[in-house]
Write a structure and sequence with these properties.
Distance between the termini of chain A: 30 Å
CATH architecture of chain B: Up-down Bundle
Shape of chain B: elongated
Order of helices and strands of chain B: HHHHH
CATH superfamily of chain B: lithium bound rotor ring of v- atpase
Helix content of chain A: 55-70%
Radius of gyration of chain A: 38 Å
Strand order of the largest sheet of chain A: 3-9-2-10
Number of helices of chain B: 5
Number of strands of chain B: 0
Strand content of chain B: under 5%
Strand content of chain A: 5-15%
Shape of chain A: extended
Largest sheet of chain A: 4 strands, antiparallel
Structural class of chain B: mainly alpha
CATH topology of chain B: Four Helix Bundle (Hemerythrin (Met), subunit A)
Largest interface: A-B, 29 and 27 residues
Number of strands of chain A: 15
Number of helices of chain A: 23
Distance between the termini of chain B: 19 Å
Oligomer: heterodimer
């Protein structure tokens, strides 16, 4: 339920054991190892060096494997149990070891690369041939063999294409030089043509043609007529397409075994991580230093892990001055899913607190109130329970949404919304479900929105007060009494007194409450004015104190922001109602009425669920990040990133 | 004909609420979608994150639609029979529709533009997509929400047929 205390450690090891040690550290996945640039030991002893050689061979192999896997992915037709929820293939240790130690995966990689090169070559050839045919097609009516063009003794011949709009102008210009123009076919916008003239005026003719945007065509190296050339190329295309089909077949066969490549890719990816960490660590000729961070509770495990290595020693060390401590948060099982929200925002700084436990109930309630539909909630719960059961790896997000599904169901029951107003509008009057719905309904936001509005603002006010209270206790635990009193306690009294004055004025609280509250407001205002800003000269302090006092308005703005809970609830319920109205309209149509009604009901409500989830998630998130967190939480901490095995494709069992 | 003026004003109000906020959402979605398609051509793996940013401006149109629906139901056009709406009541309904219409349109457009900027940022800095891109864009929606709430509450409070 807090930020995990961290311990800085130094491991000094003989180089001969470095590989084994780093492998053991990666298997344990509990230590973040600093590179030479960040390690304090390098600053104390600048003579320490790091390996300048990167594990290039491994990097190259990993890149080749990644490329081959990406190439084979579209050819994989066999089902191997992968899905969006289970992206990793389960592999047993024996199969993993066989692939890693054997040569079959490397042979397969070679085959895949050859298949890819072949396919790329064929595709490039096809592109070239299609381009050539496209160019030649403009000249398909030219009967003269191409090798004979431009071989005149006393005359010059220009072959090319003129834009249709300049063609008449070009003819007029060419007449001046007594040049002859022979057109060949012709398109809508272009006119292929051959221009003949005497060699003496060839340069002038060329200039005139250029001025008319003449695009010369080249048939260099081509023999026979254009039609022959087109036929020849079409034949070649058929041949290449046949070869390409074979290459695709080969690729499909290789893709059936791509798991081997994926095993190897994940293995070498982890190997590369180890090598990179090792090569970046500060070292002497015979000793390597792994300086890093470990959670305090994992330190004994780390010591135990290194016991078998006689050439290594570990000691806890003090962090350097102003050194940034990495942050990891740890929460109880039931709160852990909500770490998703904290991680989305970013880690707290080490001196701040982990907000997860404090945001969890609010996030779930807000999400529930934004969606507030029992039917939607039940669907969400059923889908997410299935997803949690099926999914692989980190399920925090799914668990969090599952909890939110439960609060959505509860909120729906309280607000009487089950697929919008489906129960009251689509079921016959006096249906048993309507009776149950009415019994469960406490506030109907469509009929009595003001009640829900006040509820939304009240929850918002409670959250803001919670934020201030958390900050108050955080300062008390840090023994920063001044901040606790002047920055939080004073505000708690100030805001609550103002609220009481407002409630007493509107008759909710007895009038007698007003007087002491006014006194408290005066007193707290005085404290805010003088002591909220506690540095600088008195003039500046009082000036900024006035601004702080004015910021009471911002608290009102913060509370008003919670009105979105009502708005989103109304939009969801209103849209659900609109769908039900449409269903009622189409259901009376003859023959297809029922069918259309069912389709519209399912499709419409699914659409509403999707939009409601989006709105509920984003706005509940925003209320935490913008209204709640600034009261007690400081983000910007650096993530704790231990060296651990990472798998992109497989899961070793 | 003057008898129908109230109903006409009310219907214009419903229409304005739906189409102005709808325009806002459509322009906003268009701006965000254009950026998203540009980014997806290079980084298709960001589809999920970008979808969130693209969809954000879609709610303003819904706010307007709900208010429009409320008006149409209030005057009994769907549920029938149609209520008698005096011209002053019609004008009141028209005025009540304006907050969601205007606030929805303006916030939809700006939310879309902010979402588009967020999408471009998410292309380079995916870790900021939520905490900056989505949250900044979501902030703009507050004013459409306030407009919606006022429109909704006022339409609900207006008494007709008396």
């Amino acid at each position: 339920m807090a930020i995990a205390p961290m311990q800085k450690v130094m491991i000094a090891a003989h180089r001969s054991q470095a590989g084994q040690i780093i492998s053991a550290l990666q298997d344990a996945g509990i230590i973040e190892i600093l590179n030479a640039e960040r390690a304090m030991v390098s600053k104390e002893w600048p003579e320490l060096e790091m390996d300048t050689e990167r594990p290039k061979d491994t990097e190259e192999l990993v890149a080749r494997l990644d490329k081959a896997i990406a190439f084979l992915k579209p050819f994989a037709t066999q089902k191997d149990g992968r899905s969006a929820l289970r992206p990793l293939v389960e592999v047993n240790k024996k199969a993993y070891t066989e692939i890693v130690l054997g040569s079959s995966a490397l042979i397969l990689l070679d085959k895949a690369e050859r298949a890819q090169a072949g396919i790329e070559k064929f595709q490039s050839q096809l592109d070239t041939l299609h381009t050539e045919i496209q160019k030649l097609s403009a000249w398909k009516d030219l009967q003269t063999p191409l090798e004979q063009l431009g071989t005149l003794e006393t005359a010059a011949c220009f072959i090319g294409i003129l834009p249709r709009q300049h063609f008449a102008a070009a003819i007029a210009k060419l007449e001046e030089f007594q040049a002859a123009v022979q057109t060949v076919g012709g398109g809508i916008t272009t006119q292929p043509c051959l221009v003949f003239c005497m060699k003496e005026v060839a340069q002038d003719v060329q200039k005139a043609l250029r001025s008319c945007e003449f695009e010369p065509a080249s048939f260099e190296g081509l023999k026979g007529t254009v039609a022959d050339n087109i036929t020849q190329r079409q034949g070649r295309i058929t041949e290449i397409e046949r070869e390409l089909a074979n290459a695709y077949k080969t690729a499909t066969e290789i893709a059936a075994e791509r798991l081997k490549l994926e095993i190897l890719a994940d293995h070498y990816q982890n190997f590369m991580l180890r090598k990179q960490t090792q090569s970046m660590a500060p070292a002497t000729d015979s000793t390597i230093f792994f300086e890093g961070w470990v959670k305090k509770k994992d330190y004994p495990q780390l010591v135990k892990l290194l016991e078998p290595f006689d050439g290594a020693d570990i000691a806890p060390i003090e962090p350097g001055k102003d050194e940034e401590v990495p942050v990891e948060i740890e929460n109880a099982k039931y709160v852990r899913p909500f770490e998703t929200v904290t991680r989305l925002y970013g880690m707290p700084i080490p001196s701040s607190i982990d907000p997860t436990v404090f945001l969890a109930p609010f996030f779930a309630i807000f999400f529930g109130l934004c969606m507030a539909d029992g039917g939607y909630g039940l669907i969400l719960v059923a889908l997410l329970a299935w997803a949690v059961w099926k999914a692989q790896g980190d399920k925090k997000m799914l668990w969090m949404l599952l909890v939110c599904g439960i609060t959505t169901t509860l909120a729906g029951a309280i607000t009487g919304s089950w697929f919008g107003d489906a129960i009251s509008s689509l079921l016959p009057e006096g249906h048993a479900l309507e009776g149950i719905r009415q019994k469960l309904t406490l506030i109907d936001p469509m009929k009595d929105p003001m009640k829900f509005f006040i509820l939304s603002l009240a929850i918002g006010y409670i959250q803001i007060q919670c934020g201030l209270t958390i900050a108050f206790f955080a300062n008390v635990f840090k023994k920063d009494w001044t901040a606790a009193l002047c920055d939080q306690l004073v505000w708690i009294f100030h805001l609550n007194s103002l609220l009481c004055i407002g409630l007493a004025s509107s008759g909710v609280l007895p009038e007698a409450v007003k007087k002491p509250c006014i006194f408290i407001v005066f007193f707290t205002s005085f404290i805010i004015l003088l002591f909220t800003v506690r540095s600088g000269g008195w003039g500046g302090r009082i000036g900024l104190g006035f601004y702080q006092l004015f910021s009471t308005v911002f608290y009102i703005g913060d509370v008003l922001s919670y009105a979105r809970l009502l708005a989103l609830c109304l939009v969801g319920a209103g849209f659900g109602m609109a769908i039900n109205i449409l269903v009622k309209l189409v259901i009376d149509l003859p023959y297809i009425g029922w069918f259309l009604g069912v389709v519209l009901f399912i499709g419409g409500h699914l659409f509403n669920i999707a939009l409601s989830i989006l709105g509920a998630f984003v706005h509940s998130l925003r209320l935490q990040f913008v209204e709640y967190f600034p009261k007690f939480f400081v983000g910007g901490g650096r993530d704790f990133t231990p060296l651990r095995k990472e798998y992109k494709h497989i899961q070793v069992k | 004909m003057l008898d129908m003026m109230g109903l006409t004003f009310a219907l214009i109000g419903a229409a304005v609420a739906v189409f102005l906020s709808g325009i806002g959402s459509a322009i906003g979605l268009g701006a965000a979608s254009k950026s998203a398609t540009a980014v997806l051509s290079e980084k298709p793996e960001r589809y999920g994150t970008l979808m969130l940013l693209v969809l954000l401006p879609s709610t303003q149109g819904l706010y307007g639609f709900i208010v429009g629906l409320m008006v149409v139901m209030k005057i009994g056009l769907i549920t029938g029979p149609a209520e008698i709406v005096s011209w002053s009541q019609g004008l009141q309904i028209f005025a009540a529709c304006l907050p969601v219409a205007v606030a929805g349109m303006v916030s939809g457009i700006h939310q879309g533009r902010t979402g588009a900027a967020g999408i471009m940022m998410a292309a380079k800095r995916p870790e900021l997509a939520f905490k900056a891109g989505v949250i900044y864009a979501a902030m703009i929606e507050l004013y459409a929400i306030l407009g919606f709430l006022i429109s909704f509450l006022v339409v609900k409070a207006i008494q007709i047929g008396a």
